Amino acid sequence: MNVERTGDRLFRMAIAGFAGVILVAVLALAWQLARESASTWKAFGPSFLWTSTWDPVADVFGALPFLYGTVVSSLLALLIAVPLGVGAAVFLTELAPKRVADLLMFAIELLAAVPSVILGLMGIFILVPFMRALGSPYGVGMLTAGLILSFMILPYITTITREVLLTVPRPLKEAMYALGATRWEVVRGVSLPFARSGIVGAVFLSLGRALGETMAVTMVIGNTPRISASLFDPGYSMAAVIANELAEAASDAHLSALVAIGLTLMAVTIVVNGAARLMLSRLGRRR
Amino acid sequence: MNAAVYARRKKVNALMFALTAACAAVASGTLLAILGYIAWKGASALSWSFLMNLPRPVGEPGGGIANSIVGSAKVVGLAGALGIPVGVLGGVYLAEYGRGRYAFAVRYAADVMNGVPSIVVGLFAYALIVHPMKKFSALSGSVALAFIMVPIVLRNTEEFLRLVPGTIREAALALGVPRWKVTLLVILPTAGRGIVTGALLALARVAGETAPLIFTAFGNRFEGSGMLNPIATLPHTIYTYAISPYEDWHDQAWAAALILMAFVLAVNAATRLWLRPRST
Question: Are residues B39 and B174 in the same domain?
Fold first, then answer.
């Protein structure tokens, strides 16, 4: 008995079409970016990714300073946000009274909703003067961008880590309490090891966000295509150079080079997000 | 000797308690600090004429952001009109028929799209619409935002539809109602609250997006004319004013940020409260 009425079949096919829009969009996105950046890949080959001259006037393009800036600012953000976020999640799950935890979680989740341009605004007028006071020569720079990014990814790390910590089986914890462990010892000995793969997943997910974040970084990183050892020095990121130069790209070669950066950025985030999903889905199965 | 060990363990416990509490305080305090500062800076520049006037040249008092507010409403509105139906109906497909390879591919594509940086989605809209038309337009901005919305709405709709108890579907089918009617008139409304909430949150999310609009909607100092011309949007205006060297534009950026923030947070807070009685 597998009869489908005509109306039902039409309906199924119609909504299958709507579902297919996103599939077509992703394929078209990859294809468009590949096509528009083809001339750059042809002209510079893969060395586009490891040369560091960016000269739109002479039509010489190398993306290394942008790759460097994106990776370094994102790693700085993780360095700051992961301990903070995991610490906050531990407090909110294991130690805080439920009412307090709910209230603080509400605030942290709303922090995730703050538009990045507003964080950038705060960055320009508060963080930059602050960094200058700390002795940074320009105020803008790699460290400033990392700090702003860390605020952006903090809510992700906190919420996911908290969700994972909530799945730790009670009997495991109670067994340890029964042995006379303190709360912190239970967190260290049971909860955190149990949640490890989830936390790693959260870190990768946040990394994906940080790598692609545009506005907040563009506003405070300094927008100078230079690789410098000092974190106080201005840098540039992949997303930022696209945001700054695309609307004014003078030549087709310049445009193509910017799209090539976009394609690289997309490839990197797909890999990072894939890794995050792998970690988190493994967790879901165990649950 | 044992007493010393106990004391040390207790001390470590208290110390870590305090440290993690400090982390939580920093994380949640950041939002309060941002809200407070924007309210303080923005309120002083906010006035009725600021909301109602068009921008004026630098230095001339009385300039406003009316065009940005209207522009944002237009661009986000069109993005919603394009993205929400696609997302909801696609989500219905995944929830109702979502087994097999095709559904897997759709889900995978949605996850990929969700993770693609918004600036790259902007590049796509640029290559798709701006480049062939040789012109920045409100439409291209809407299309970019719609692509950002679809995966969010899609997965959210699927999730809420899956929460509808199978008994409801079976009861309707047992009455001889065709399956498409059951889906559209029984199951979809049952999950309605969650789906509407998800759509609203997606709207709030793209209303704050700037990156994909820089080289699509582009911005405009005047009232934009139609969807095929450049148009001003609130987040983009905040960006332009913030990086400008002019003092009075900075003040206006804060006031505009206050408006954007109020809208985004109001939607977020309201939907959360609205969903609460059901989820607990």
Answer: no
Question: Alpha carbon A248 to chain centroid distance?
Answer: 27
Q: What CATH number does the domain containing B130 carry?
A: 1.10.3720.10
Residues with Cβ within 8 Å of B119's Cβ and at least 6 positions away in sequence, in order, are A212, A214, A239, A242, A243, A262, A265, B211, B212
Chain A contact probe: residue of B20, B40, B279 with most A CBs at under 10 A: B20
Residues A60 and A72 sit within 8 Å (Cβ to Cβ): no
User: Are B273 and B188 within 8 A, CB to CB?
Assistant: no
- Chain A residues within 8 A of B239 when measuring between CB atoms: 117, 120, 215, 219
Task: Locate the chain A residue with the closest alpha carbon to B13.
Answer: A184
Residues B83-117 have pLDDT tens digits of 999 999 999 999 999 889 999 999 999 999 999 99
Q: Chain A to chain B, count of Cβ pairs less than 8 Å apart?
A: 273
Residues 201-240 of A with CB under 8 A from B: 208, 211-215, 219, 239
CB of B30 within 8 Å of a chain A CB? The answer is yes
**Chain A CB contacts of B13 below 8 Å:** 182-185
**B214 and B83 within one domain:** yes
Could you write out the three-class secondary structure of A275-286?
Answer: HHHHHHHHHHHH
Are B81 and B125 within one domain? yes
Same domain, B84 and B204: yes
Those residues whose C-beta lies under 8 Å from the C-beta of residue B184, and which sit 6 or more positions away, are: A11
User: Same structural domain for residues B78 and B161?
Assistant: yes
Beta strand A54-55 with A60-61: parallel, antiparallel or unpaired?
Answer: antiparallel
pLDDT exceeds 50 at position B237? yes
Mean pLDDT of B128-138: 92
**What are A54's strand-pairing partners?**
A61
CATH topology of domain A54-286: MetI-like fold (1.10.3720)
Give the global pTM. 0.94
Q: Do A95 and B20 touch (CB under 8 A)?
A: yes
- Give B235 to chain A, closest Cα distance, Å: 7
DSSP-derived secondary structure letter, B246: -
Domain total of chain B: 2
Inter-axis angle of helices A196-212 and B118-125, to 10 degrees?
40
Distance from CA of B172 to the nearest CA of A (A): 15
SS3 A54: strand
Q: What does the buried/exposed string (b/e) look like for B254-269 if buried means 16 or more CB atoms within 10 Å of the residue's CB?
A: bbbbbbbbebbbebbe
Give the distance from residue B179's alpha carbon to the nearest chain A alpha carbon, in angstroms.
6
Burial call B208-224: b when 16+ CB within 10 Å, e when fewer:
bbbbbbbbbbbbbeeeb
Distances (CA, A) of A246 to A137, A155, B213, B247: 29, 31, 12, 27
Per-residue model confidence (pLDDT) at position B275: 78
pLDDT-derived band at A136 (thresholds 50, 70, 90) equals confident
**Torsion angle in degrees (nearest 10) through CA of A245, A249, A253, A254:** -20
Residue range of the domain that includes B32: 2-45
Residue A106 forms contact with B (CB below 8 Å): yes
Smallest CA-to-CA distance from A92 within B270, B266, B26 is with B26
